[in-house]
Amino acid sequence: MDGRFGDCLGELERHGLVPSSYESIFAGGSLVRGWGNERSDFDVYVIVTEPRESESAQIDSVALHPDSLPVESFYADDGRRWDVEYWLETQVDQLFAKISPDTLTSIQPAAKRMMDAEVAFLERLSYAAPIAKEEWLEERKREVAGLPLTSMMALRALHMLDIYTEDVVGQLKADDVRSAVLTAKIALRYAVDALLASHGEFGESPKWFARRYLAADPTELSFDDWWALETMRSYDPAAPERWVEEVLTTCQRIASEISVAPEVTV
Predict the structure, then answer these.
(1) Contacts by 176-179 with C-beta closer than 8 Å and gap 24+?
(2) Per-domain residue ranges for the chain?
(3) Residues pairing with 34 in the sheet
(4) Full pLDDT tens readout for the chain, 266 residues
(5) Pairing mode of beta strands 42-48, 81-88
(6) Phi, then psi, of 15 in degrees rounded to 5
(7) Using only C-alpha atoms, what is the Rg of the chain?
(8) Second CATH level (architecture) for the domain 5-145
(9) For burial by CB atoms within 10 Å, which of 35, 101, 133, 192 has the most?
(10) CA atoms within 13 Å, Cβ hemisphere of 29
(11) Is 51 within 8 Å of 88 (Cβ atoms)?
(12) For 58, how many CA atoms within 13 A lie in the half-sphere containing its CB?
């Protein structure tokens, strides 16, 4: 953070974004993980017990109660954008309840009903850097470590994979090969999502797939083999169905080899 990370609290205070009472403030996202660049946003999380009232905040949606998430944004002196999310502690409690062991055996695991902001919060929590009141953050890290988070995220992706592989099969049977090619690309994304989640790497943004893949280093499918499929290296415009079938075969193999919690069947 170009030397600014140690003064994050001061920067937030100068912009009037530190509430009078809060449980914790921490940073997450690509810059904290070491994946960012000069155009990356700096993501900050403020945990509060009372809703933030603000006319300047943008509102993100979450499948929690309340279902809104205030986000304040500003540009620091160096031109970097900061996004500050205000999470109620009760929202965090609800989010953790979605990945409890009980939800693994339910008909529709709650993780399937997570929204992007919820998945991002859970993904960033593991490597979050404290800004103020570190005790809350460390306790939550210990709590989430005891939950079946990676199994839940793998199952979430496998559910979507099933949907899109069925669509691909139907499109091929109907000789709608162009649609099958596009749908196969989506299916491959969810297969990779499930595979990486089973190795502890998950997230909503596909822009970090390559980084996540290298970090997970799955044995089920090498990075080079995945990259060849992702970049459609073997795609033949004269016979596009061959590439689609190759993707389907890979997706089905990945799904059969993914390891999730022993009490779960997929």
Answers:
(1) 177/240, 177/241, 177/244, 178/240
(2) 5-145, 149-257
(3) none
(4) 444 466 899 999 999 999 999 999 999 999 999 999 999 999 999 999 999 999 999 999 999 999 999 999 999 999 999 999 999 999 999 999 999 887 766 655 556 678 999 999 999 999 999 999 999 999 999 999 999 999 999 998 999 999 999 999 999 999 999 999 999 999 999 999 999 999 999 988 889 999 999 999 999 999 999 999 999 999 999 999 999 999 999 999 999 999 775 444 34
(5) parallel
(6) -100, 10
(7) 20
(8) 2-Layer Sandwich (3.30)
(9) 192
(10) 19
(11) yes
(12) 9
Give the H/E segment covering residue 43. strand 42-48
Which of 40, 41, 34 minimizes the C-alpha distance to 215? Answer: 34
> Given the DSSP bridges, would you call strands 58-61 and 68-75 parallel, antiparallel or unpaired?
antiparallel
Other CB atoms within a 10 A radius of the CB of residue 10 amount to 10
Domain 149-257 CATH class label:
mainly alpha
Q: Considering only CA atoms, which of 73, 26, 21, 76 is closest in space to residue 52?
A: 21
For 188, half-sphere exposure in the C-beta direction (CA atoms, 13 angstrom radius) is 24
> What angle do helix axes 223-230 and 177-198 make, rounded to 10 degrees?
150
